[in-house]
Amino acid sequence: MTTVTDMDTRGMRHCETTALGALLRHEGLDLSEPMLFGLGSGLSFVYWDSKSMGFPFLGGRVKPFELTRNLAAGLGLELLVQETTSPRRAWQNVVAPIDAGHPVGLQLDSYHLDYFGSKVHFGGHVVAMYGYDDHDAYLVDTDQQGGAVSTSLTSLAQARAARGPMTARHRSFTLTAPRNPPSPQGQIIPAITACADAFLNPPIANLGHRGIEKAGRLVRTWHQRTDNPRRDLPQAALLMEKAGTGGALFRNLYRDFLAECIQLLDSGHLRTGHTLYTEAATLWTEAAALIAEAGESDDARYLVQAGTVLCDLSRIEREAMQALSRLGSESPGAIQP
Questions:
Q1: Using CA atoms in the order 242, 243, 245, 247, what is the torsion angle rounded to 10 degrees?
Q2: How far is it, in rounded angstroms, from Cα 91 to Cα 102?
């Protein structure tokens, strides 16, 4: 059995930030999950539907691995990414750093993992791997999935080789911190304003605040969109609240990130953004509950109420991001300890 020493295997709420936290703690950089999410400019929104999908999907974060790239760039981390179509080379890309004492991040399809409780295909799942033996791989996943977990090498190979939406070609990656990394506090404003700019100026109507407004209109039609509302509507609500989002479609994580930032920077715009995202987080949980109730009761009137809440959310989040986008134009003072 080969394992990386001094590995902190605690799980968090979201898969990519869980993996990032595990890799960075091994590098001596211990940041909270909300800080990892926020410094990675992770918040977003997408209304995703296509003819090939059985039911629409509401996403609350940037696309898989973009958060990792953003965080590495902001903190001056060396990010080494490897992809290949060869299963043999893919395995060597993993065991080489582990044998050298470094954990590795993997992007894969969670459906194939032995320990995964919900058998749903998701090709954007991210884990940290820190060991292996002749039969199993040892991983760090979310707290919901068990934190320190193991899966057979066969299942890991299947998960990494999977093809479909959001999958990557056996993607693995390592993070190395520089000897004198930039202060995370100094990256707060660039990370927030970049996130706000993307949210306020989406290239298509399915993204950002425009996407939430679109969802508010279309969610009212979801009862006709499915032949099994008792299955599909609660499932959609579950994905919003429980599927590694930290609750409220990642808004709880961003709210908590902004709360941490307020302790570090004195800014009225920051406080406004935090107040509005606190309200937004509550409303996202309410919207999910209404969507679930529409399915459980087979009553489409709850979807009309959910649509109203989503339209309110489009306005609230737009106002929040407008305030946060102004962080770059003011001179917030650091709060002295």
A1: -10
A2: 15
Q: 16-36: buried (b, 16+ CB within 10 Å) or exposed (e) per residue?
A: bbbbbbbbbbbbebebebbbb
Domain of 7, in residue numbers: 2-30+78-176
User: How many domains is the chain built from?
Assistant: 2
Domain assignment present for 40:
no
Distance in angstroms (rounded) separating the CA atoms of residues 55 and 291:
13
pLDDT band at 156 (very low <50, low <70, confident <90, very high): very high
- Looking up tokens 């919207």 gives 287
* Cβ–Cβ under 8 Å, residues 112 and 100: no
Are 161 and 193 members of one domain? Answer: no
Does residue 47 lie within any of the structural domains? no
179: left (phi over 0), alpha (psi -120 to 50) or beta: alpha
293 and 146, same structural domain? no
Residue pLDDT, tens place only, 25-75 = 999 999 999 999 999 999 999 999 877 778 999 999 999 999 999 999 999
**E-strand stretches of the chain:** 2-3, 43-48, 57-61, 78-82, 104-108, 125-132, 136-140, 148-152, 172-176, 265-266, 333-334
The set of residues, in sequence order, having a beta carbon less than 8 Å from that of 182 and lying 6+ positions away, is: 74, 75, 76
Looking at the structure, do residues 257 and 150 belong to the same domain, yes or no? Answer: no
Contacts of 75 (CB under 8 A, 6+ apart): 29, 39, 177, 181, 182, 184, 187
Q: Tokens 């809440």 correspond to what residue?
A: 309
Q: Which residue type, as a one-letter code, is found at position 225? A: R
Tell the burial category of 181 from Cβ atoms under 10 Å away from its Cβ (0-12, 13-18, 19+): middle
228 and 301 together in one domain: yes
User: Which residue, of 176, 194, 217, is where some domain finishes?
Assistant: 176
Q: Are residues 267 and 141 in the same domain?
A: no
The two structure tokens encoding residue 282: 């509550």
Q: Are residues 88 and 192 in the same domain?
A: no
